[in-house]
Amino acid sequence: MTGGGGFLGSRLVERLERDGHEVVAARRRDYDLTSMDDTARMFDDHAPELVFHLAAEVGGIGANRANPGRYWFANLMMGAHVLEQARVHGTPKLVIAGTICAYPKFAPVPFREDDLWNGYPEETNAPYGVAKKSILVGAQSYREQYGTNAVFLLPVNLYGPGDNFDLETSHVIPALVRKMVEADERADEEIVLWGDGTPTREFLYVDDCVTGLALAGDLYDGADPVNLGTGEEISIGDLAELVRAETGFSGAIRWDTSRPNGQPRRKLDTTRAEELFGFTAAVPLRDGIARTVAWYRESR
């Protein structure tokens, strides 16, 4: 498993080990997947029967704006190298985690997998989204030419215990949790959030995503990309109020409209995942946020 030491990967490792599988979590300190030689060495060392490619360089809007070249290069190279070495080594199956950022900025809502190519991604995360979408092209091309069994999943925004809470690189839920917990402890009168609160997002609890990945690893062998999500959207403004309720922050929320909103709406059509391998999300957003806040208070 690439990215096995990360937020999602570490949870998937735990799940697979509980299910009785022998799991190798390949980490960046051992293998630089932007290097073909290192990627080949990883496959040589472990001769895997099933690879989950979860490794990515990613962050929120600020991190994407600061690192467009790096995010394009690193994500494209890692995916291409893993695909090529899976082909060279005859790996029986490869499950690749794509990104919701691959969808066009103004894709019809709910996002259906067939709409992936009907426009350009939202500008602030387009380099990352385009790189990941290129890996889908590679997976389908390798399947057609070489018979590589590479399946491609599109998880929506993830969150949960163990997430990245660094305000410079985190996504919206961990950023809101940290800001509000710390502001509440300092008795701050207000916090400042980016944008105007109107964009919508869909969020998937990390353990639900782990279930989707495991099911796809066991049951799905198709060429078509598959969304993983809840099928439910919430505005960033309403999300902030949910986090406020769980953290107890009582100050004001000020929206900095000089900062970008990002993509206007995100909501997935999750029909394909349910039909193809029986995946439906189980954890409601409010419950997941409560678990995330509790974990952050206890673990920071």
Write a concise keyword list for the protein shown above.
300 residues, alpha/beta, four-stranded parallel sheet, two-stranded parallel ribbon, 10 helices, 13% strand
Quick gist of this model?
With 300 residues, the protein is an alpha/beta fold.
* Helical proportion, percent range: 40-55%
Largest sheet: 4 strands, parallel
Determine the number of helices (DSSP H or I, runs of at least 4 residues): 10
Distance between the termini: 27 Å
Q: How large, in whole angstroms, is the Cα Rg? A: 19 Å
Helix vs. strand class: alpha/beta
Shape: globular
SS elements, strand count: 10
Strand content: 5-15%
What number is the mean pLDDT? 96
Order of helices and strands: HHEHHEHEEHEEEHEEHEHH
Low-confidence stretches: none
Read across the widest sheet, the strand sequence of neighbours is: 1-2-3-8
What's the topology here?
Blueprint: H1 7-18, H2 36-46, E1 50-53, H3 61-66, H4 68-88, E2 93-97, H5 126-146, E3 150-155, E4 157-159, H6 172-186, E5 190-194, E6 200-201, E7 203-205, H7 206-219, E8 226-228, E9 234-235, H8 236-247, E10 252-256, H9 271-277, H10 285-299
Parallel strand pairs: 1-2, 2-3, 3-8, 4-7, 5-10
Antiparallel strand pairs: 6-9
Helix pairs in contact: 1-7, 2-4, 4-5, 6-8, 6-10, 8-10
